[in-house]
Amino acid sequence: MMKTRSALIFGYNEFALEIADNIAHKYENITIFKFDDESKKRNGEKYSVASFDLSDNWDVLEKKFDMENSVIFCALLDDATNIFLTISLRASFANVSIISLAKDKESANKLTMAGASKVIPIVQTTASIISDMLKKPIVTEVLHNILYEKSNLKIAQVCVEQDTFFAGKHPYEVDWKNIYKIIVLFVLHEDMSSEFIYSSKASHHSIKNGDKLVVVGYEEDIKLFEQNVGSRYE
Q1: Which pTM does this prediction carry?
Q2: Domains of the chain by range and CATH?
C-alpha cells in the first residue's frame, strides 16, 4: 500500500473535528485517533476514525503513513494526557511536526518542553471565531500558515479594559498596522456576537470595555498592545 501525506489528529472532540475541517484541503488523508474513553464515533463521520491508547507502539504509524511529510495534532482535552501523548510521539518521531493544543500558558509551556513543534492556546470563543474566519477565502491560506505551519506570527484574543485609549473610534477607523504593528480581524462583543472588522456591520460599533479583539502579529507587538489596552483573554 502506498503511503500518503497525512494529518494525524489525536483526540475526538469539537476542536479535533474543527482542525480536520480547516486542513482538509491540504492533506491527502486525515485520520482522527480516538482515545478509549472519548465519545463514540458519530454516524456519517466524514473522516477516518481509529482507536488508540497510550500504550500503543507508534511504529505502526510509520508503516501506514509517510511520516516525513505528515503532521501530528495532539488535541486531547485532558492536559496531562495530552502532554504525555506529545512526549510519547516525539520520542518515536524526532523530525515530524507535532502541533499540540493547550488550555492556558502553563500547559503551553509544558507542551513545548514535551516536544511540541508548535502550541495553539485554545479558547472556546476564539476557536469558533477562527472557524468562521477560515470560511472566508481571503484569509484561509494566511491563517492556515499562522495556526498550523511554522510561523513567527501569532494569533491571540485581547480583552479591552481601557476603551478611552480608542476615544470612541470604530474598529475600521484605527490604524492598527502603523500604530500597534498588529492586524485585528474580529471583534467579539460582550453579548458574544462577533464581527469581521472589515464588514459593513463593524461600522456601527465603537470599541468598548469588555470587547475582545482577535489579533494577528508578532509576540512582542501583541504584548505591547496588551499593556496599552487590556489583557490577553485566556
Answers
A1: 0.58
A2: 6-122 (3.40.50.720), 129-232 (3.30.70.1450)
